[in-house]
């Protein structure tokens, strides 16, 4: 049985820890490492894409980080209760042509009893920026 600490119900301390663990994993840009935080049958909505299952998470993230170069993410705890956490985030990246972007958004997370994320719903907006306008370096 897979367990991914911290497990719910979350306190302020454990919710903050869960958010930092997610930020660290995503900043590794390692799709397999990231996917291990999710249930085998995880459900995602990422922008207008619906992704189901850990295997598809790996495919999605592999493709994402081939397009989004020099990706750097910052997550912030927004709210938590029981087995749910809400975060706001921003990340920056550039495309193959060198155009930089900042993406802003919110995520709603739901965890199983073992601390694996079973549902992730993300709303994301992109803004083209100049390299010197980056916040996250």
From TrEMBL:
Q: Which InterPro entries match?
A: DUF1348, NTF2-like_dom_sf
User: A Pfam family name for this chain?
Assistant: DUF1348
**Cross-referenced SUPFAM superfamilies:** NTF2-like (SSF54427)
Q: What is this protein called?
A: DUF1348 family protein
Naturally occurring in which organism (per UniProt): Mucilaginibacter celer
* Phylogenetic placement of the source organism: Bacteria, Pseudomonadati, Bacteroidota, Sphingobacteriia, Sphingobacteriales
């Amino acid at each position: 049985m897979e367990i991914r600490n911290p497990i719910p119900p979350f306190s302020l301390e454990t919710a903050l820890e869960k958010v930092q663990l997610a930020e660290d994993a995503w900043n590794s840009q390692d799709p397999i490492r990231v996917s291990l935080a999710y249930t085998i049958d995880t459900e995602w909505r990422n922008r207008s894409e619906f992704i189901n299952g850990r295997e598809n998470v790996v495919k999605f993230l592999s493709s994402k980080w081939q397009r989004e170069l020099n990706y750097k993410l910052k997550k912030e705890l927004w709210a938590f209760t029981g087995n749910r956490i809400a975060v706001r985030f921003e990340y920056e990246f550039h495309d193959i042509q060198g155009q930089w972007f900042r993406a802003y958004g919110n995520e709603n997370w739901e965890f199983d009893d073992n601390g694996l994320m079973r549902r992730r719903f993300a709303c994301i907006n992109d803004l083209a920026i100049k390299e010197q306008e980056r916040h996250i370096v």
